[in-house]
Amino acid sequence: DTSLLQREFSSLPPKYELLQLQGKGSYGIVVKALNKETNQIVAIKKFTNLYRDIIDTKRVLREISILRQLSTSPHPNIVTIYDIIIPNEQTVQDIYLIMEYCELDLRQLIYSDYKIPTSTIKHIIADCLHGLCYLYHKGIIHRDIKPANILINIKNVNHECFTTDRYEDVKYIIKSFLVEKQKNKKEIIDI
Q1: Considering 83, 94, 144, 169, which one is annotated as catalytic?
Q2: What confidence tens digit (pLDDT) does each residue in 154-188 have?
Q3: Would residue 144 show up in a list of annotated catalytic residues for this protein?
Q4: Nearest to 5 by CA among 149, 51, 23, 15
Q5: What is the distance between the alpha carbons of residues 153 and 59, in angstroms, rounded to a whole number?
């Protein structure tokens, strides 16, 4: 519903035109939007009611911190954060993450009618491994690897087939649970 989106994202700068609801989760809402200044399609993730639960607050802030750190040296297989918007810096009730938009996730692809050739599956696996290796070298281990957290960009989607030349790349969205290396030892962080 457009009016619900307009209400939910009313404190977002006017340069963003909301296009479509992408999903709702326990921490907030994700929409597809157009940055009218750059003419770029982006995903906007709105974290709401940040202080209702201290553990959830820590998880959200840690996710934002890690994504921000990763965005300083972008990797082709990690989703890029373009901006972080805090509408009211006095209360910080809501935070908007403006990030790279990807058309679908691996879960959607698996359950779609696309016929995925073996060569494309190999590319997806290779991109996943490249992204995981990069995260590991940055001291981060993704602990919530699942098809819904593996985002995919595709070109020229044709419902009859999903061929290698249409495959573009795989991105990770860093979500919920991460492990960070500290001082040459791995420490599990509950986020």
Answers
A1: 144
A2: 654 433 333 333 444 555 544 323 333 333 344 43
A3: yes
A4: 23
A5: 27
The pTM of the full predicted model, rounded to 2 decimals, is 0.76
| Token output for 66 | 């890690």
- Whether the predicted pLDDT of 104 surpasses 50: yes
Other C-beta atoms within 10 Å of 53: how many?
A: 12
Q: Is 52 exposed, middle or buried (0-12, 13-18, 19+ CB in 10 A)?
A: exposed
> Based on the number of CB atoms within 10 Å of its own CB, is 4 exposed (0-12), middle (13-18) or buried (19 or more)?
exposed
The closest of 91, 90, 72 to 81, measured between CA atoms, is 72
Give Cβ neighbours of residue 26 (< 8 Å, ≥ 6 apart). Answer: 56
> Which position has the token pair 């795989």?
170
